[in-house]
Amino acid sequence: MNKGSLFFIYLLVIGCSHNAYRSSNGIYKKEAKKLGTQIRQEPASYFPAQDSPWIGGVNFDLRKPNFVIIHHTAQNGCPETLHSFTVQQSQVSAHYVICKDGTVHHMINDYLRAWQAGISKWGNNSDINSSSIGIELDNNGFEIFTDPQINSLLILLDTLKTKYKIPQENFIGHGDIAPGRKVDPNWRFPWKTLAEHGFGDWYDDTATLVVPPGFNEYQALRIIGYNMKDTTTAITAFRRHWMQDSVYKPFDSSSVKILYSVFQKYQ
Questions:
Q1: How far apart are CA 98 and CA 77, in angstroms?
Q2: 172 with 161: CB under 8 angstroms?
């Protein structure tokens, strides 16, 4: 086969790869255009009986994300995940997908509300989708996260933290905001590594830490952000994040020190 034929096949493959998402790209542009049209419209009056015409304010910008929620895809490879996020029937999405080889797919504008957090709560925030960016890591839930994947994640998080001034403690997992319903990213996720780079909190050395008498574990979990409607799932979520343990166990002397160390960072 000559070089001309090989080049033609190369162009054909690239074209097919690009065209695979032509339909979803078109839907994205259409929906984004509709949202842009809504923003440009003069707001309708909530008091039609009053003779008070709309007056445009001049000091505003776009609402910005204040949280980053990290997920694992629970699917078998990036192609499967990209398909799920490009068909409307799935009703799920994320701003970013990071494949095992470190490839980053930016799927939704950061300022748009992706459907990634679902029914969730962190502190007093019960509409996480409206204030967060969702990042999906290609992982079926039972795998080690790859080095290229984590390296790309750290670069992306640094960009998002700087661009939107996201507080360090606001980098959390889907399992943290939806305990009992979600477990991602799984217990293998390197939260300690992220915290060392400034994304999320981690506990200090607890060898000489003294927990004060009367320390209330449930209150501490609530102050950190956990929904305490079900204390068992909240404790399990905490252990998965900070102890890399996916099994529920009541607090003992060792784990309560870790909880107290984390809790102190939220005071």
A1: 10
A2: no
Report if pTM > 0.85: yes
Report the mean per-residue pLDDT for the chain.
92
Say whether both 186 and 133 belong to one domain.
Answer: yes
Range in 30-44, 105-119, 124-138, 251-265 the model is least confident about: 30-44
Do the domain assignments include residue 226?
A: yes
The residue segments making up the domain with residue 129 are 65-200
Determine which helix (DSSP H) or strand (DSSP E) holds 12, and give its type and residue range.
Answer: helix 3-19
Token code pair at residue 44: 């309708």
Among this protein's residues, is 136 annotated catalytic? yes
Provide the token pair at 178. Answer: 């939806």
Provide the pLDDT for residue 7.
41
**Catalytic residue, candidates 31, 136, 143, 196:** 136
Looking at the fold, whether 223 and 193 belong to one and the same domain comes out as no
